[in-house]
């Protein structure tokens, strides 16, 4: 009985991973941090376009971009256990760093961060396992849309 | 301003040679006066109680970068000792490194009204003063650390004593400091590269000067500037076996700078510099030798640095010493070097009765206190919090006043230490009069705080009243009653107002911050030179280094006319 | 033209104090000596200002009088059983002092942004201590400088130039010139390679493997800079050596160094993706230096291991002190986050996450820290000052913050202020208001007032005092 269930699970896993292969998806490690652009954009004001341009992005290794089969400046969706977010793809200026995706601090990055503090008070903001996939049809939310969608009170 | 009369107390006012006389004190407008209108004044009945000037602490680490890092380092120190907010007081925590408000309240409860923060890195002086602004109830001042400051080292190396005096005068004003503090002279500069100096004749690496030259130089500077206090010295080799010789060398090296019987050097927390022997196993007391020297030379004052068996936190500017302590204990260790000026270190520490070394340290402190004959030149401190937190003062008072109290503690300490201790051979017991000297009058005199430490007409009305009757209580036998009385004053009067009563804060007041403003004949030249060298020496701008007087919540400058 | 000199820059933890600001008719027209971020601060601070107090009515934020906003705020705080007062790292120590008094008065929890940046570093310091110094000590003496899990080029742009590798000290000189010539070499090599690739039709994007061998200059006696990171940041390019570590493997690497410093041998060939021979060489460089320093950033505090990473780093430095002099310092982010810790500590004994609900300070990060309180949905009101948690907290925490009554004190409109119930327009401390702040190495410096604030804005200190005063007034009336 038990072995049968195992088999079933394995089978479904196989099928699922088969599905996955139809759509290019990449398992990556997510980092967040500061950039000069983010620092400057922040000083322009959190509602400014400069700010959105500087933080609603993700930096990827050129090799990884290729394996996703898309080009720079297209949108991608990043999915973690804690949420998902659509961001503009930027070729990393600091490559090579295969399978590492960098997002500047900001409201967009926060949507996919891990709130677990492991008793330290500190959420996990770097090295979060994530999946990334092309999202050519989807738009990057503006800050106001983002607030409306995720933080609106009942 | 309210008028007060303190009636019928036994007054101990050693500076005015009043020894337990039953008398009244009149207070008007924050000062002691000859007389007030008895109908209008509030009367405090002090009959059967002791009346003393408010306590003065010449050396306690209560504010600033290193103290605060000590607080941060030790949450476990705070958990067991908390003070809740009341309608009058702010909340806080203890134990060995209390938060600022709690520090002020606890001193006030013990009847202390003036306290000196002895270790201020000049670059971080702003921090010290921010904390002093938040330390209520007491008047206070800080000593900037100058013994390893590059300007001092270079000026003295080049024999430029007047320039050195001008630089020191500048930094007193810039940092709002009160006295020249010297810690392990030369050793802290060497510690910048992990080295140290071995004795007062060793050369400071890269600076071609010896600790002796630094001590003598700053002693001369101190005299040229007419500073109110002497140089305040934490000796080289502190906390090492055999260092009593260094302490004696340090005192001797300024012997010929003294004149008319006036002290020119203060050796602080002397207990830590009074060790004989060649290592911790062979440690013995050097108190006898030091006391003998001090008894024959009037140019030295000391404070005790008395150890009490408890869990505390050691913190000094002596970076290499603290590193040694870390290696000895394996406890957590903080080091903080300050560019161009000094260093510091912190290590939590527990003094244990059953440890030979700790018990010997305990004994040495009391031996010093009892063997130095002139109470005007030795003061009661614990180098708070290095040898114990300041709240242990009442216990030390009971040890000084009672052979019984000493014997009881002796019975419980390490056996070998007990056999080697000199204490059993010492009969002396302090009187209340002598206690008043070592806890206030002597310290105020040494600091030249003319308004403090006495109850003469014109003095600040800072008064402590303790509920113990010297006619009925024999302190030698009833030492527990003495301890209890000194733990919580019956009344503490600050600036003419009752601020604490029976161990409760009844009014929160802000104390003043004293600082010395030396008046030079030509200050400008130095400022230009400072500005030129500033960017090379520090990572901050000249203009941002000095603290404006308005930064002090209650500034109390003391002008002195310098000889340069 | 009026130039205001020696201005401190209210942006990052480097807290440069040599900025010159040119002011014309109460408008800042130019900034000298500042980095890009600092310049942007001084030139663009006036954008998206909160102009008037706002109070939420029928779901909309509408303009209100100061009195109304203050009263509403006081009521929110009084009616709450467990209010949360958060932010503090981008305001003055003077404001933080009032904030602590307010938190104590309302029996709330007060936390500052170090809880989500160097909180683990502080916990680690409380476990093992720290051997550190002021930055000038390093400028004068350090000949081996590590930047570990931090990127000064982006986060503290003038750090290297003012305090470390490219600064001139008494015993150590700047290596700027050597760096420039080396950079030239690297650039021409890159160009050459690109040309060859083009000719041979190779993939232009293909970047070469990172060399693991220590370059020659790492063995010279002069000043050296090493960057340890998971990716080759701009700072890494300025370094003499870049040590690439696999993500979440810093702990292994640090412990490996500790073993090597203790002359033990490692039984593996690689640690965290780095060959052991390389580690051996670096360990020798560490032991051989006169004064070494490790600056560490969120690359250590936020990744797997968190406080254990810092424990290991501090312990490594401690061990190294038996062989030479070595120090370590966290790279603090906001210009006054160190100050927030300092003021919290002197008033309460604890550096962040202080809970006043029992009438005295309590501290237990993981329990009394803001993210945990929010994720457990315990807080029932919030006051946010000079911070933008909606932008920077993980979604779940931010959601639980904005669902409660929320007071925001901020000069600018932010995602958080848009979600608030009361918004106070404050002045910019360091531009429009004076104050005190602490550099990352705990050196206190003054914040300057350069221009007059807009007429309707008040300083953080004044706003907090008004709220505190109102809280006390309403309380005494209710009694």
According to DSSP, the number of beta strands of chain B is 26
Within CATH, the superfamily of the domain at 3-53 and 455-505 in chain B carries the name: Urease, subunit C, domain 1
Number of domains as seen in the coordinates of chain C: 2
Could you say what the CATH architecture of the domain at 3-53 and 455-505 in chain B is? Roll
Major sheet characteristics of chain C: 9 strands, mixed
In CATH's first tier, which class of the domain at 3-53 and 455-505 in chain B applies? Mainly Beta
Into which percent range does the helicity of residues of chain B fall? 25-40%
CATH C-level category of the largest domain in chain C: Alpha Beta
Mean pLDDT of chain C: 92
By CATH, the architecture of the largest domain in chain C is named 3-Layer(aba) Sandwich
Shape of chain C: globular
Instruction: Assign the structural class of chain C, choosing from mainly alpha, mainly beta, alpha/beta, alpha+beta, or little secondary structure.
Output: alpha/beta
Overall structural class of chain B, as computed from helix and strand content, comes to alpha/beta
List the quaternary state of the chains.
heterotrimer
The percent range for helix content of chain C is: 25-40%
Q: The biggest beta sheet of chain B, please?
A: 9 strands, mixed
Alpha plus pi helix count of chain B: 19
Overall description:
The complex is a heterotrimer of chains A (154), B (564) and C (479). By secondary structure, chain A is α/β, with parallel strands linked by helices. Chain A has one domain (24-151): Barwin-like endoglucanases, CATH 2.40.40.20. Helix content of chain A is 37%, strand content 27%. Chain A has six helices and six strands. In chain A, strands 2-4-3-6-1-5 form a six-stranded mixed sheet. The longest helix of chain A is centred in the first third of the chain and has 21 residues, at 2-22. In chain B, strand 23 and strand 24 form a beta hairpin. Chain B is α/β, with parallel strands linked by helices and 564 residues long. Chain B has 19 helices and 26 strands. In chain B, strands 1, 2, 3, 4, 5, 21, 22, 23 and 24 form a nine-stranded mixed sheet that branches. The model of chain B has no long low-confidence stretch (mean pLDDT 95). With 479 residues, chain C is an alpha/beta fold. Classes of the chains: A alpha/beta (154), B alpha/beta (564), C alpha/beta (479). Chains A and C meet through strand 1, helix 2, helix 4 and helix 6 of A and helix 1, helix 4, helix 6, helix 12 and helix 15 of C.
């Amino acid at each position: 009985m038990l072995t049968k269930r195992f088999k079933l699970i394995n089978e479904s896993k196989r099928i699922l991973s088969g599905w996955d292969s139809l759509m290019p998806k990449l398992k990556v490690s997510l980092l967040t941090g500061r950039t000069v652009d983010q620092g400057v954009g922040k000083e322009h004001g959190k509602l400014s376009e400069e700010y959105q341009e500087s933080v609603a992005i993700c930096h990827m290794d050129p090799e990884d971009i290729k394996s996703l089969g898309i080009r720079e400046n297209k949108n991608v969706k990043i999915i973690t256990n804690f949420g998902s977010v659509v961001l503009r793809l930027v070729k990393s200026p600091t490559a090579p760093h295969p399978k590492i995706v960098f997002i500047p601090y900001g409201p967009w990055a926060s949507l996919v961060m891990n709130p677990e503090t492991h008793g330290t008070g500190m959420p996990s903001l770097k090295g979060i396992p994530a999946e990334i996939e092309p999202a050519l049809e989807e738009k990057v939310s503006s800050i106001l849309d983002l607030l409306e969608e995720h933080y609106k009170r009942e | 301003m309210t008028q007060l009369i303190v009636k019928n107390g036994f007054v101990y006012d050693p500076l005015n040679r009043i020894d337990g006389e039953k008398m009244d004190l009149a207070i008007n407008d924050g000062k002691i006066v000859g007389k007030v209108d008895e109908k209008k004044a509030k009367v405090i009945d002090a009959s059967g109680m002791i009346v003393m000037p408010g306590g003065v602490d010449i050396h306690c680490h209560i504010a600033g970068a290193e103290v605060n890092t000590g607080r941060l380092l030790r949450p476990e120190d705070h958990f067991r000792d908390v003070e809740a907010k009341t309608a009058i007081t702010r909340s806080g925590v203890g134990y060995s490194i209390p938060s600022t408000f709690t520090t002020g309240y606890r001193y006030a409860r013990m009847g202390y009204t003036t306290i000196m923060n002895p270790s201020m890195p000049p670059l971080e002086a702003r921090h010290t003063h921010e904390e002093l602004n938040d330390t209520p109830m007491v008047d206070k001042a800080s000593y900037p650390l100058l013994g390893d400051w590059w300007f001092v080292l270079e000026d003295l190396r080049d024999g430029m004593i007047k320039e050195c005096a001008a630089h020191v005068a500048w930094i007193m004003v810039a940092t709002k400091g009160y006295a020249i503090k010297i810690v392990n002279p030369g050793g802290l500069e060497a510690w910048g590269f992990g080295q140290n100096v071995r004795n007062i004749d060793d050369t400071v690496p890269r600076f071609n000067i010896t600790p002796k030259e630094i001590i003598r130089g700053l002693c001369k500077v101190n005299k040229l500037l007419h500073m109110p206090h002497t140089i305040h010295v934490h000796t080289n080799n502190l906390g090492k076996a055999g260092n009593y010789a260094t302490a004696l060398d340090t005192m001797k090296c300024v012997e010929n700078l003294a004149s008319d019987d006036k002290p020119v050097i203060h050796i602080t927390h002397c207990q830590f510099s009074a060790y004989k022997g060649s290592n911790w196993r062979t440690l013995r007391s050097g108190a006898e030798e030091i006391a003998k020297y001090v008894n024959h030379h009037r140019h030295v004052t000391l404070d005790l640095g008395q150890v009490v068996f408890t869990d505390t936190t050691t913190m000094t500017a002596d970076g290499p010493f603290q590193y040694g302590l870390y290696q000895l204990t394996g406890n957590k260790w903080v080091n903080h070097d300050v560019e161009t000026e000094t260093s510091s270190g912190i290590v939590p520490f527990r003094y244990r009765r059953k440890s030979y070394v700790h018990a010997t340290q305990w004994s040495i402190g009391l031996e010093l206190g009892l063997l130095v004959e002139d109470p005007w030149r030795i003061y009661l401190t614990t180098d708070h919090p290095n040898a114990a937190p300041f709240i242990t003062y009442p216990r030390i008072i009971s040890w000084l006043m009672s052979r019984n109290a000493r014997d009881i503690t002796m019975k419980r300490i390490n056996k070998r230490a007990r056999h080697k201790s000199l204490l059993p051979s010492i009969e002396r017991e302090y009187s209340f009069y002598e206690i008043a000297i070592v806890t206030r009058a002597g310290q105020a005199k040494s600091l030249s705080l003319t308004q403090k430490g006495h109850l003469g007409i014109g003095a600040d009305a800072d008064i402590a009243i303790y509920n113990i009757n010297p006619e009925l209580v024999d302190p030698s036998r009833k030492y527990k009653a003495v301890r209890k009385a000194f733990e919580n004053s019956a009344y503490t009067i600050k600036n003419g107002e009752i601020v604490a009563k029976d161990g409760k804060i009844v009014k929160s007041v802000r104390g003043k911050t004293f600082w010395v403003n030396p008046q030079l004949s030509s200050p400008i030249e130095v400022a230009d030179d400072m500005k030129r060298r500033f960017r090379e020496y520090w990572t901050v701008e000249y203009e941002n280094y000095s603290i404006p007087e308005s930064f002090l919540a209650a500034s109390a400058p003391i002008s002195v006319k310098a000889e340069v | 033209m009026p130039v205001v000199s020696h201005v401190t820059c209210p942006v990052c933890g480097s807290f440069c104090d040599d900025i010159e600001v040119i002011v014309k008719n109460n408008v800042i027209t130019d900034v000298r000596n500042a980095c890009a971020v600092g310049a942007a601060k001084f030139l663009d601070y006036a954008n998206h200002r909160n102009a008037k107090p706002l109070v939420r009515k029928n779901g909309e934020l509408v303009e209100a009088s100061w009195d109304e906003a203050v009263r509403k705020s006081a009521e929110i705080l009084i009616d709450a059983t467990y209010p949360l007062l958060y932010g503090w790292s981008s305001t003055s120590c003077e404001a933080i002092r009032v904030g602590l008094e307010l938190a104590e008065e309302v029996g709330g929890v007060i936390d500052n942004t170090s809880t989500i940046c160097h909180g683990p570093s502080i916990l680690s310091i409380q476990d093992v201590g720290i051997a550190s110094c002021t930055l000038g000590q390093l400028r004068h003496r350090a000949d081996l400088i590590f930047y570990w899990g931090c990127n000064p080029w982006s986060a503290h742009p003038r750090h290297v130039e003012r305090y470390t590798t490219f600064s001139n000290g008494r015993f150590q000189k700047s290596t700027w010139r050597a760096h420039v010539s080396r950079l030239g070499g690297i650039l021409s090599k890159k160009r050459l390679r690109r040309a060859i690739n083009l000719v041979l039709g190779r993939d232009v994007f293909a970047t070469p493997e990172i060399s693991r061998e220590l370059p020659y200059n790492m063995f010279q006696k002069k000043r050296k800079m090493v960057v340890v990171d998971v990716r080759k940041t701009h700072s890494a390019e300025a370094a003499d050596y870049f040590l690439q570590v696999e993500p979440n493997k810093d702990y292994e690497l640090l412990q490996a160094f500790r073993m090597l410093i203790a002359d033990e041998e490692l039984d593996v060939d690689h640690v965290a993706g780095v060959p052991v021979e390389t580690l051996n060489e670096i360990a020798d460089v560490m032991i051989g230096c006169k004064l070494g320093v490790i600056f560490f950033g969120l690359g250590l505090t936020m990744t797997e291991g968190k406080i254990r990473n810092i424990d290991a780093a501090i312990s490594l430095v401690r061990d190294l002190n038996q062989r030479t002099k070595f120090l370590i310092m966290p790279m603090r982010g906001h210009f006054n986050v160190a100050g927030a810790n300092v003021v919290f500590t002197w008033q309460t004994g604890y550096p962040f996450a202080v809970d006043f609900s029992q009438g005295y300070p309590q501290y237990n990060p993981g329990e009394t820290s803001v993210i945990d309180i929010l994720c457990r949905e315990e807080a029932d009101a919030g006051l946010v000052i000079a911070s933008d948690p909606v932008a920077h907290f993980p979604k779940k925490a931010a959601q639980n913050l904005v669902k409660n009554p929320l007071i925001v004190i901020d000069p600018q409109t932010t995602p958080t202020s848009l979600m608030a119930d009361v918004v106070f327009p404050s002045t910019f401390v360091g531009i429009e208001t004076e104050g005190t702040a602490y550099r990352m190495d705990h050196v206190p410096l003054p914040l300057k007032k350069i221009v007059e604030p807009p007429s309707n804005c008040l300083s953080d200190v004044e706003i907090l005092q008004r709220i505190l005063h109102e809280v006390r007034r309403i309380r005494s009336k209710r009694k």
